[in-house]
Amino acid sequence: MFPNSDKNPAAASIPQLYQRHARAWEQARGDKLQEGAWLDRLTEGLPQGAAVLDVGCGNGRPIAAELVRRGFRVTGVDVAPALLASAEAALSGAEWIEADMRTLNLGRCFDAVLAWHSFFHLDEEDQRTTLPRLAAHLAPGAPLMWTAGPAAGIAMGEWEGEPLFHASLLREEYASLLAMQGCAVEQVWLGHPIADGPTVYLARRQISPASGLDGSA
Prior knowledge:
Elements: H1 9-12, H2 14-20, H3 22-29, H4 36-43, E1 51-55, H5 63-69, E2 73-78, H6 81-90, E3 94-98, E4 112-115, H7 124-135, E5 143-148, E6 153-159, E7 162-168, H8 171-179, E8 183-189, E9 199-205
Parallel strand pairs: 1-2, 1-4, 2-3, 4-5
Antiparallel strand pairs: 5-9, 6-7, 8-9
Domain Methyltransferase: 52-141
Protein name: SAM-dependent methyltransferase
Keywords: Methyltransferase, Transferase
């Protein structure tokens, strides 16, 4: 369970939700790529063989699979073992790591970091500590892309008969959190508040961080 489970039980249940319903998620998601244009924006200018970190990679399909197809070295991170097992079975050309993004510390930097439809499952407090953690894995000049909602607050959905938690911060707060890690928000594509569509953020490392993940020198 997440440490904040007493505050947000629905947020705390996200890892178990995806673990329990891994097969249903795979069937619902399918292999059809709908995010090609977003991957174009994320990887624009990256050379063949660039290292891409996919945070909340699920079973690796179709996004990580597409990144591998494009010639990138993909590291996929997810909290659900069942989804990672499926990724490992289907995609041998990538590295798969079971980890919680809230405590992620791989000890290396990447040429791009993606958190597509994963970061927004964290509650507000965890987003405030996790976004700088993701940014700390960026090489100088590397982009970070993540999805959120169109406004600050909590949005509850339902999946497989269970509550599905989402949250977002203000755009200005995301920018402030990243600025402390030497990153700047470059573009924001606002999703519709009612229609099915995420708000997509693209930030970039401007300088190397002056401190570690815990704030120490």
